[in-house]
Every structure is written in structure tokens, then in C-alpha cells.
Amino acid sequence: MIVNEVVQWAVILSLAVLVLGLYRQLAQFMGIAPLSLEANSGPRLGRPLDDAAQSILRAQLDHFPPSRPATLAFVHEGCAGCQFLLAHLSNQPVDEATAQIVIVVALRPSPDFLVALHELSRPVVADHTGDLWKACDVQATPFQVTLDRHGVVTGKAVDHNVGEALVP
Amino acid sequence: MSEVAAGAIQSLLIVLALGAIEKARTLRARAASWHPVLLGSSFRRRHATALVSLSLVGDICAIILGLLRPGLGLGLAGLLVILYTVAAATRPGALYRRSHCGCLGGLLDGQGLSFLIARNTVLLAIAVYGSRIRTLTVWRLTSLGLTTITLVLLGIAVGAWFSRHRRTSFGSTDAHPSKEVPA
After folding, report:
1. String of DSSP letters for B43-62
2. pLDDT band at residue B52 under the 50/70/90 scheme
3. Distances in Å between the alpha carbon of B61 and those of A100, A104, A118, B47, B130?
4. In this model, does residue B69 exceed pLDDT 90?
5. Which of B93, B170, B179 sits opposite A156 (nearest CB)?
6. Surface of A (55-114) touching B: CB under 8 A
């Protein structure tokens, strides 16, 4: 009898914690509580990426700044939202002539993740040290930064529904 | 059956339903092979769509059986919770790689293996308790206790699910006008 009561109260308290956790998540999503990590993150609009970011990109890409408008798509392996962005890129054929270039930037990717990313037939930058993410002030994923042909930042967003993302 | 037990069981079924919705969304977007739990293993990646589909079928069966034959349904739910925990814990890099798997519809989607195990232990305890029950008889909407908490949980989870699909843009220059999302 007592054990039953104890178990029941343990369940009540556990579920109460679940409810409080959900309330906090919902408050963040609805803007009642600030998304302190995400708000105003990323590189400054209207300016080129900083020198540290540019040097890392030049070291791993054939051409930087890109010859066409481009999007840097920051992803990492443990990000549930990134799976939809990557699936979108995987399912979309690459039009070499006209498409905006999408450069996938992966944070500390495992070998298996890198292999999967290269199957996207898009430029991939592996940020093994996290320096590029730090230089671009990425605080949440999937994070996208658009650049013009001169490498100037023209847009940025954290996108949880990548069907309508900056990525075309 | 006490209201506490009924509420706990209802909560578990709702959590499974949220997970099933997430899996359906993953399959619809053809994103199974990019799921964090399946991504790190070439075997899991090759069979990702089949694995997620089987998981979805399992969740649906557990929910239906949980309503009609709680003993069977919750037993199946417990087994599924164990399988999902093992799958998440055994993926390459699980010990040091934090991730949001979104496995239960993003419900309390904390990072880290210890959080996952703690959360799933609670769910397993509910499933084990519920598997001894023959019929689910307590569905009083006006009752206090966990039935009420369950409804609150459902409401918040549904709200969070719809809200997580909004886009947070930090602006753009005239060259690439973005679609602003109202705060």
C-alpha cells in the first residue's frame, strides 16, 4: 500500500517536471521567454564574413568568395532539425548553371557523416575545431547565411522548417 | 484503477502519438537517412526508411492496443521504449555527442545520454505498471490529478509542435529579402 503511494507520487512529480519543461519550451518558441542563444546571432548583415571565417572557407573550398550568390548551411550530426534541411538538399537536383550555391558546413563531423554529406554533390566544409562556427557566431542549427558573389552577408536565419528556408 | 495510474498511462500514449507524428513527418520528407540516431551507422542509414517505418507501425500498434487491451499495448510500449533507448545509446559517438533526436515528438528533447535514459526510465516504469491492467476505465475529463495534467501536457505539446515550425529570421539586405516571421 505504502509502496503504491510512493510510486504514485513519484509518477506525479515526474510528470509535473515534464509539464514545467514543456511550458518552458513553449514559452521560448512563442517568444514569451527570450531565445537568448539564438537572438541576433550570426555574422553582421551587409558586411563580409570576418577574416578568420574567410580563411577557413578559402582553405577548404575551390572558390571563395563564390562566383554566384551562395548559402552557408550550418549543420551538425545531432541536430534533429538539420535532418530536414539535409533531406531537402538530398532530394533536390543540383542545377549547376543557375542554382544558388549551397555550402554545407558541418561541425566536428564523424567520418560516416562526412561521407553522407559528400553524397549531396555540394561543397562541404568540415569544421573540425569549431573555429568557423565561432567566427560566424552560430548558436543554433540549422543556421543559414546567404552571401552575394562578393562574399557579403545578405541574410541569415535559424530555420526549423527548411521547406521554406533561405536555401532554394 | 487510480486516477494517477490512468493519467500516467494516458500520458505515455500521448507521448507515443507525438513520436508517431514525428516519424510520419520524417518519412514524408524522405529524411529518415538523416535522422540523428540512424546517421552514424552505415547499416542503419541504408535501412533507415524501413527502420523508421517499422518504428511508426510499432508506435501505432502500441497506441491502439493500449486503448483496447492495455496489458498488451503497454507491454509493447515498454518494449519500444527499451528498443529506442538502446538504439540511441548504441549509435556511434553516443557517449560524447550530444543530440536532439526528436524521437518523442521533441517532447522534453534534452541533450545527452543521461537525460535520455532518465526520461525513458520514467516512461518504461509507466509502461510496466500499465501492462498489468486489463481495461482502461478512467477517462474522466473533469477529474483532478494526472488526467488533468495529461490534458495540459497534450495541449502544451501540441502548441510546442506547431510553434517549432516557425522560422526565426534575423533580417536580410535588399538583395535577398527574407520572409519575416512575426514575433
Report:
1. HHHHTHHHHHHHHHHHHHHH
2. very high
3. 44, 38, 37, 21, 16
4. no
5. B170
6. 69, 77-84, 86-88, 90-91, 110, 112-113
Q: How far apart are CA A53 and CA A145, in angstroms?
A: 12
Which DSSP category does A3 fall into? H
Provide CB contacts within 8 A for B166, sequence distance 6+: A29, A160, A161, B181
Cis omega (within 30 of 0) for bond into A142: yes
pLDDT for the residue numbered A34: 44
**B34 vs A90: CB contact, 8 Å cut-off?**
yes
Is residue B51 predicted with pLDDT exceeding 90?
A: yes
Residues of chain A with Cβ-Cβ distance to B164 below 8 Å are 29, 160
Crossing angle, helix B3-28 and helix B113-130, to 10 degrees?
120
Nearest CA in chain B to A166: B178
CB A155 within 8 A of CB B171: yes
Which ipTM score applies to this complex? 0.70
Distance from CA of A59 to the nearest CA of B (A): 26
